[in-house]
Write a structure and sequence with these properties.
about 350 residues, alpha/beta, 8-stranded mixed sheet, 5-stranded antiparallel sheet
């Protein structure tokens, strides 16, 4: 479960006895831009344990994908991890050279990206890409790797894998391409699978199928899962813990059930209020959070959500003092001056 910087890791319910497979502390990632330095990830800390399904949620631009890329050394220039620690099974990943982090990606951390057509090479067969994924990390022959790939394709629901493995990505549907990415992500039995908006481009029915598949595979194999998403429906169905991210920071870290029943941060509550109600949709009124996310190139002294918050707009403390993380009695860790333990959270 996650926690905010400088606090002990807490989550509702009994604490697992085993050590976390992934331990992140005070991670900061910046991007240099003409407007200044964009602070995309700010002092993020969390623990992830074997079999845990952690959701990281927030609006576009909140820093979710930048965080995911920071964990695996894929921050594109002009971005860089400025400071902090990412420990995977006791091994520090921050500061590894390209060769070192490449050995980790695909072997110890599996990645499922949002756009399978961008992740797969359209000029190479599925088989050639799959075999390469396996042989980079395992000392096996091409024949053995191909047999392993066929087994994995069958496991994720690709019919007639011995034939389909010779097809090109464009010969697969969007949902089937995403299944291929899941199979590749688990091919080397990673400790952690990171899925970054893996169903965004899929229709609702296919989304459900892919998510069910991802959940069942992680359960069967014991992989820990980080799900990056803006879709709270996915969070409710798939995950057991959640970090709510705003302006590069975690503003609430809690259990999924607790988030939906008693959100403690005003931003969490606002996100839940934006879940589409079919009755509202028919009237043409789409729920939205008033205002715009802050400029991440500006490090304001107060709470970054204050200008959009019904409480913060009228409170001097919210405008001038950044809230420090604090732990509520139920275990949630929250950055808000007014968060409490009452139903509905901040009041």
């Amino acid at each position: 479960m996650s926690h905010a910087a400088s606090l002990p890791v807490l989550r509702p319910g009994p604490q697992p006895l085993e050590a976390p497979v992934l331990k992140v502390r005070d991670l900061r990632t910046d991007f240099d831009a003409k407007s200044g330095t964009v602070h995309a990830v700010r002092d993020v800390s969390f623990d992830l344990r074997k079999g845990q399904r952690l959701a990281i949620v927030g609006e576009s631009g909140s820093g979710k994908s930048a965080l995911a890329m920071s964990l695996v050394g894929l921050v594109p220039p002009p971005g860089r991890v400025v400071s902090g620690s990412v420990m995977l099974n006791g091994k520090e990943l921050v500061g590894l050279d390209d060769a070192g982090i490449s050995r980790i990606r695909g072997r110890d951390i599996g990645l499922v990206f949002q756009d399978p057509m961008a992740a797969l090479d359209p000029l190479r067969t599925i088989g050639s890409q799959f075999v390469e994924t396996i042989r980079v990390h395992q000392d096996v022959s091409v024949r053995t790797a191909r047999a392993m790939a066929c087994e994995l394709l069958a496991e994720v629901g690709v019919d007639d894998p011995a034939r389909r493995i010779s097809d090109y990505p464009h010969q697969y549907s969007g949902g089937m391409r995403q299944r291929v990415l899941i199979a590749m992500a688990i091919a080397n039995d990673p400790a952690v699978v990171i899925a970054d908006e893996p169903t965004t481009a899929l229709d609702v029915t296919t989304q459900a199928q892919v998510l069910d598949l991802l959940a069942s595979i992680c359960d069967e194999r014991g992989n820990a899962l980080i799900m990056i998403t803006h879709n709270l429906g996915i969070v409710e169905e798939l995950c057991d813990s959640v970090d709510v991210m705003y302006a590069g920071r975690f503003v609430e870290s809690t259990g999924v059930e607790e988030l939906f029943e008693t959100p403690a941060h005003p931003y969490s509550r606002a996100l839940l209020d934006c879940v589409i109600d079919p009755a509202t949709t028919r009237r043409g009124a789409m729920p939205a959070i008033a205002g715009s996310p802050p400029d991440l190139a500006v490090d304001e002294p107060g709470c970054p959500f204050a200008p959009r918050c019904a409480i913060g707009r009228d409170e001097q403390r919210c405008a001038t003092a950044r809230p420090e993380p604090r732990t509520l009695s139920g275990g949630a860790v929250v950055r808000c001056h007014f968060a409490d333990d009452t139903p509905g959270g901040a009041a």
